């Protein structure tokens, strides 16, 4: 197969979407590879899994570096690793416009709702509070407007009677794990590489 797109995954926590991307990338016909896993928290649990899988990991601390130095360091680290696309996967930090401008149309995010519905924090609780019968997951391009960039792919998930934010989050997460690799492949198919 032709060379695969080099994707970095940015995490802040457990990294289950990162794991889904990593395992999807093991398939022979996957159009991307995970070139680097990094994020803003050097002790994010997901980093250990990436390391155990032999993926390059950069342990950066936004807290220690401060916001501006952190994003400059991140940019340099990504470029040094030959990264072409960035997949945010539970990366719990607002990405500044200056950084987005250096990676225009090359940063993706996954959000556990059918955007533009329930952007921002606690989208599962927002769906419950709204009495929604359906929620879901969205993969979108990151631009300067929070959770509002062009949608690459979405999938619906039903809200069930008795759901809590936790049970709904768990059901959506299962869909996220399939959706994210599919969305990256779809985006690469459209991109002029
Ligand atoms: C996911 O629900 C994702 O949609 C949201 O944050 C959560 C991250 O979970 N942005 P994980 O770290 O990938 O398990």
Q: Helix count, per DSSP? A: 7
Share in β-strands: 15-25%
- Give the end-to-end Cα distance, rounded to a whole number of Å: 14 Å
Q: What kind of sheet is the major sheet?
A: 7 strands, mixed
Total DSSP E strands: 7
Helical coverage, percent range: 25-40%
* CATH architecture assignment name: 3-Layer(aba) Sandwich
Uncertain regions spanning at least 5 consecutive residues: none
What integer value in Å does the Rg equal? 16 Å
Order of helices and strands: EHEHEHHEHEHEEH
| Ligand list | 5-O-phosphono-beta-D-ribofuranosylamine
Strand order of the largest sheet: 3-2-1-4-5-6-7
Count of distinct structural domains: 1
Mind telling me the CATH class? Alpha Beta
Task: Give me the secondary-structure topology.
Layout: E1 5-11, H1 16-24, E2 32-39, H2 45-52, E3 57-58, H3 62-65, H4 67-80, E4 85-88, H5 97-102, E5 107-111, H6 123-129, E6 134-141, E7 151-158, H7 165-190
Parallel strand pairs: 1-2, 1-4, 2-3, 4-5
Antiparallel strand pairs: 5-6, 6-7
Helix pairs in contact: 1-7
Bound molecules: 5-O-phosphono-beta-D-ribofuranosylamine.
